[in-house]
Amino acid sequence: MAHWLQILVLGLLLGGVYAMMASGLTLLFGVMRVVNLAHAAFILIASYMTYALFEGLTLDPMISLFVTMPLMFGLGVGLYLLLFPRLEESPRYVEMTVLLTFGLALIVEGLLTFTFTGTFRSVRPEYASTSIMIGDLFVPTSQLYASLISFALLILLWVFLRFTKTGTAIRATMQNRAAAQIVGVNVRRISALSFGLGMSLAGAAGSLLSFMFPFFPARHWQWIALLLALIVLGGMGSIKGAVIGALLLAVASAFVTDLVGPTWSPITFYLTLFLILMVRPQGLFGAKVRL
Amino acid sequence: MAVVEEREGLLGESPFRKPGTRSRRVTLIVALGLVLFFPLIAIPLFDSYAYVLQVGMLMLMWIAMSSSWNIIGGFAGYISLGHGVFFAIGGYAAGLALAHWGISPFLFLPFAGLAAMAVGFLAGLITLRTRGPAFIVATIAMLFLFLLWFDNWEFIGASSGLDLPFLQFPVQWLKVPFYYAMALCAIGAVYLAYRVAHSKFGLGLRAISQDETKAEVAGINTRWYKVWAFALSAFFIGVAGAIYGYSLTHLRPLTFFAIAVAARMVLMAIIGGRGTVAGPVVGAILIIGVNEFAVRQFGESELNIVFTGLILVLALLFFPQGIVGSLRKSGRLPAFLDWD
């Protein structure tokens, strides 16, 4: 019993980080109908930034959040304004965004490999290799910290979307873009802002992942498949759904790892992604958005 | 077509004749001649004979792959990023036949293609329940599922791979049989694309890519059209995988499943012109040509993948119809490229 509880706790801790990664991706889809295949590649950019800051200035990865988040925000706003308004007239807009962000992912992967080579990297602050015992439960310190920060950022995001005027405008755009425009929301500004917001969440995720897992440039394909599984399960465009999906799948994959072995744990995500798309393309919690 | 040509003989310029028939026929003969006699022409021209034939083989391989992908991705408008799976099925089917039963992959080619087609049929039945972006994501998931399976399947050597015996052939001419096998594959793939484009089936696929609901109302069995298009698009990719795998003599899952492989087929078809017969051919020649030039000038580097991505992004933003498509739209498409 204690064994199962242990796996559940580890799964939930990981799920917290997944939830934050996925909420950024689902926000982009919700506001702009962009399926961002480069999201995980952008997360890796932040991981490498954190790595450079740690190696160069011995900056704690948790503090480098304050660097990566604003930088990624700026990158996001810039990329949005540069690339996406041009696609808006395309009759197959969503498909175009998939191909476009696929291209972006290739560019980022190549540039990262060119700059940092293809070898495994990891950021090793002191707490990366320690753990604490809560009763009988074994909790790695790094995962605990990462999970707490993730939940804190998710709560901030919720407060922002729920209680500020800009947040309300973002939610309105998610619900109905045309109607939001009619009541005076500057949809393009809101889109750029949301893209920045999603990217800054990717930045935070990159900093946190950097001390949880070793990473290399081509790693982002595994991450993006995982993230897509989470947000498709949660219903694309639904942040609440993404969080629930993340917690569910993280726990499920922790159990698969325990029962079958770590090589097969990614199958939880790929298979879920595949099956959900077949059975219910709109996801479990999402509104009926034509994907 | 035959009737029109007869008339032409009797009456000279026929009002029914599609302009440029002669220039298309000349192009076809020149292109076929060039492909078939290239290994002979190349002997006196190039010092690095093996390298030149290798590039020729790669060019033919990508022509076959992007032309095949075009059947589902271009004609039917269903963008698949999972076609690396069929490349792998072909490669491994032929590789296993050689390693376990000693059957030469060259004899096994049709069966490698059929194996890929069978998997394509089944995969199509499942993935084509979705459409648009959901389909793209589903094909990526399919690619990763197969990769995970192949990576852990001991019978085929898992992630460390499967070694194949070398082809017994004079080393100096070793590339020649691979070149001709690939030439056959490319000619077959382009011919298939041409036949599909000029059939009722192809017309149905175009209708699906325009508006699937209307196509269905018009009486097209959209489900079977799509599934067959998906299966047909797998055949020559499987054949290409079998030849390519044998030429490497060592099969590793990542060689076939790398997302860059799937990306390239898509890129070539988009650059050349999605949904046209000549587009993928033009795209493949252009991309492989530029790539080989870059590798020779600057060496093999990670920047190649950056260029692949950059070209894809720029093409989507400024050139979404590709070379052949844009030229046609502006009415400047030379007749020898107009195969639709």
Distance between the termini of chain A: 41 Å
Low-confidence stretches of chain B: 1-15
Could you name the CATH class of chain B? Answer: Mainly Alpha
Strand count, sense and barrel status of the largest sheet of chain B are: 2 strands, antiparallel
Strand order of the largest sheet of chain A: 1-2
Largest sheet of chain A: 2 strands, antiparallel
The separation of the N and C termini of chain B measures 13 Å
Q: What form of chain A results from the Cα inertia axes? A: globular
General shape of chain B: globular
Count up the helices of chain A.
11
- What is the typical, i.e. mean, pLDDT of chain B? 87
Percent range for β-strand residues of chain A:
under 5%
Q: What is the CATH architecture annotation of chain B?
A: Orthogonal Bundle
Number of discrete domains of chain A = 1
CATH-assigned fold name of chain B: ABC transporter involved in vitamin B12 uptake, BtuC
Secondary-structure content class of chain B: mainly alpha
What share of the residues of chain A lie within helices? over 70%
User: Number of DSSP helices of chain B?
Assistant: 15
